[in-house]
Design brief:
This protein is mainly α and about 325 residues long. About 40% of the residues lie in helices and about 5% in strands. The structure holds 2-acetamido-2-deoxy-beta-D-glucopyranose (4 copies). Keywords: Chitin-binding, Disulfide bond, Plant defense, Signal.
């Protein structure tokens, strides 16, 4: 009895060790390394863009963020009452990220920083696509990715000011679609150009193709709105160094500033309003599910943008007499 147990354990140990070696061997044959002017560059195959980048030397997203974690974060998205049920999945997210991992999306800094960036990005996605409310089963934060488009658009979001650069296609409507909903012809036009997909004539692609919807969202996360401003990615991972003006405007690297960049005065500079707190809550909830302590996300001034001056005010109040 004792002997059989021991040999069983031994066999088990051998099997486990050989699996470990196999996985490692597999990994190392997959990573190709070269040095360019003293900088280590790696090629890890398709998930990191299929080319050499210094970011590809770090873990790739699927090394630390796996299917079950995606399922945990968005646990109610396929429930019968979820509007986009069946649409969003893990594979689409990883496939979409392959365009941006070589540029640092989810591959910048150490593993904690990498996981925090994914939680932050998905926190924005969650708070913009949720249909959770106070008494929803599983709690209001379990309902991210419930939508993939705006349900009752009040207009078609065609701005004629851009009729030369991004003319609206006859009959097309540019209401909110995607993982970080895209609105207006000029945004569809610019994102379509960047991703080499004709979104101006086919805005509906964003609600038909989850990979494309995630690509559009990650593109927005990675790209500054203006040249003089940081991207949400740069503001989050600490690539961005605030100017004196930024400091005076209470803009510091961290999650709060990503809300400022992506949503301006819809969320920021308005005090402790619900839509802002809702995004922070999604971020914190996802951090927790990924096993990262809330304190890692920093103090309130870093998390929030309640007191920040916005980068791009959407509306400047008239100063003339009323
Ligand atoms: C890769 O990870 C290490 C720590 O794990 C980090 O110091 C380094 O900055 C990362 N590389 C890049 C390009 O972010
Ligand atoms: C990871 O990086 C963050 C920020 O860059 C730092 O605060 C933290 O101490 C690092 N963690 C480890 C385990 O090195
Ligand atoms: C979805 O979009 C991706 C990225 O643009 C593209 O590679 C793929 O072919 C599209 N899928 C379909 C079914 O059109
Ligand atoms: C500083 O901020 C003010 C107000 O937001 C702006 O008008 C000014 O151009 C900024 N200066 C610089 C150097 O960015």
């Amino acid at each position: 009895m004792e002997v059989t147990q021991k040999s069983f354990l031994l066999i088990l140990a051998i099997v486990m060790v050989s699996q470990f070696l196999f996985v490692n061997g597999d990994e190392s044959t997959k990573t190709r390394v070269k040095y360019v002017k003293g900088t280590k560059m790696c090629d890890k195959g398709w998930e990191c863009g299929g080319g050499y980048s210094r970011y590809c030397c770090n873990l790739t997203i699927s090394d630390y963020f796996q299917t079950y974690q995606f399922e945990d974060l968005f646990s109610k998205r396929n429930s019968p009452v979820a509007h986009a049920n069946g649409f969003w999945d893990y594979h689409s997210f990883i496939t979409a990220s392959a365009l941006f991992q070589p540029k640092g999306f989810g591959t910048t800094g150490n593993k904690t920083m990498q996981m925090m960036e994914i939680a932050a990005f998905l926190g924005h996605v969650g708070c913009k696509t949720t249909c959770g409310y106070g008494v929803a089963t599983g709690g209001p934060l379990a309902w991210g990715l419930c939508y993939n488009h705006e349900m009752s658009p009040s207009q078609s979001y065609c701005d004629d000011f851009y009729k030369l650069t991004y003319p609206c296609s006859p009959g097309a409507e540019y209401y909110g679609r995607g993982a970080l909903p895209v609105y207006w012809n000029y945004n569809y036009g610019a994102i379509g150009e960047a991703l080499k997909v004709d979104l101006l004539n086919h805005p509906e692609y964003l609600e038909q193709n989850a990979t494309l919807a995630f690509q559009a969202a990650i593109f927005r996360w990675m790209k500054p709105m203006k040249k003089s401003q940081p991207s949400a990615h740069d503001a989050f991972v600490g690539n961005w160094k605030p100017t004196k003006n930024d400091t005076l405007s209470k803009r510091v690297p961290g999650f709060g500033t990503t809300m400022n960049i992506l949503y301006g005065d819809q969320l920021c500079g308005q005090g402790d309003i619900d839509p802002m707190n809702n995004c922070i809550s999604h971020y914190q909830y996802y951090l927790e599910l990924l096993g990262i302590a809330r304190e890692e996300a920093g103090p309130h001034e870093v998390l929030s943008c309640a007191e920040q001056v916005v980068f791009n005010p959407s509306y400047v109040a008239p100063t003339a007499a009323t």
